[in-house]
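User: quick one
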Amino acid sequence: MKPFLLTLFVLFSTHIIFAQVKKAPAHKPVASKNRIEISSASKASMTNGQAIYSQSCVSCHQPDGYGVQNMNPPLIKTSYVLGDKTRLITILLKGLSHQEIDGNMYQNVMPSHDFLTDQQIADVLTYVRNSFGNKASAVTEPEVKALRAKK
Amino acid sequence: MLNLKTHFLSNFKVSATKIAIPVCIALSTLAQLSNAQTAVKNAGLKTPEGFSATILASNLGSARHLVVTPQHDIYVRLARPVNGKGTLVLHESDGKAVVKSGFGNYGGTGIYIKNGYLYDSSNEEIFRYKLNAQNEVINPNAPEKIVTGLISRFQHETKSILVDDNNNIYVNIGAYLNSCQEKDRQRGSMGVKGCPLLDSAGGIWMFKTDKPNQQLGDGTRYATGLRNVVGLDWNKQDNQLYVMQHGRDQLHDIFPDMYTVKDNANLPAETMYALKKGANAGWPYIYYDPIQHKEMVAPEYGGDGKKSTTEYLEPAAAYPAHMAPNGLLFYTGNQFPEKYKNGAFIAFHGSWNRSPEPQAGYFVVFQPFKNGKPTGQWEVFADGFSGSAAQTASGRAEHRPCGLAQGPDGSLYVTDDSKGTLYKITYKKS
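Assistant: Done. Structure below.
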């Protein structure tokens, strides 16, 4: 092997090792990403929300919240999930179809979930807004109630 | 493993220049070698003994259906145009396929060559292009519009096409609802009486190949009760059209008191139908249970999870639920061993609606046929498109098989519409 290539090779190899050394301690915060650190999202809300998610949301939005490409939108860090709570609650109450979501279109419709109680909608939205790497304020029962009353 | 790493890292700190660098070189070389080997080995696929897979092209775009000409040109349809080209023309030589041109500023799925014409479809229209003796498109900028105004409403909007020996073109018009409910996919919502969308969707329509600007009413509804068909091919042995239906979704979500999560993941089969004119496969009134082998009355239309019927066309074969059959090809070549002759290859794009159960599919299956009818158990022919078992289970697949075609020498071509990979699978007697 030519000396120049060898030097490159060595540099590259040591780079990999150093990257590993550097990466090792960085593992911890990644692991704790899923921990709930939002004071307004109570533990009960998160537990109930998770149960509702597994019952009513998981088949389209998937266990990891990634959704299905071109079919069902992801719930991870999208403006629809993290943004305006009024819009988000309304989607659960009334459903949504064929709207552009952060620049993408999706084939399937979001059916209305108005069969869920105000508390259930608050819980599942709180869960979604604080799972899959999301971090946003809780949704409360009175917020859902007010919007449902508006119709 | 961890211990070893720590040990190695502490060594590295102690005498960085003397020990670590040669070790690094050795490790790095090894890593590169094994990377190169796994990347190249059989194109990342698992195929039966004697078969081998190669990658002819990558990053083509969302590569859907395709055709291969005797001159080794490959026409690939893209779901969305890339640089304004919805159909790519590749030429294959020396184990590679290179894009030489493209045409048609419309995305879509369907493509077919017959009697000197290339036909392709957008999600609403069908076009045809005259070919020269070398099967090259003569005027890529001036297609004839054969059919226009087909229904395309977000769900099941792609149009697959096929031309028979009598100048008829067949096209799938997918149903734009999951199960024809009053409110699509809503829990407890019942089926619309008579499911009026079947007038203009949820079936296979037949048009003439040589009449311009035909509308829905100019065609014939060849078969109905088909929720969505993407894979279709003509079975030359029993001289009829075969289609693969995507079965319904969300039994559990919509009727949680009747169906468990597991029921949803397993019950509504993906089905193969042999169609004759006037056939009715029963959607949305039934789904096919692949375990009991019964046409089950859909819960939207009075079913209770137990009621069955025999009113509709029996599937020719049934496959596990939700795996999304997107390509069907009857193998008529001479390269593969005898058992493959006149059997069917099916590309299963992979599931999403089995969730939270592990996802499935992402492979090409072989269905043996005898005397023009499916016989015996299907088998996985080419697997590994997803990248790993974990990627299959999560549905985060690397590649997703979609279109199938047979080359002039009997090789099998497979497209991947996720990363735009074009695979070629060949057989060599040992």
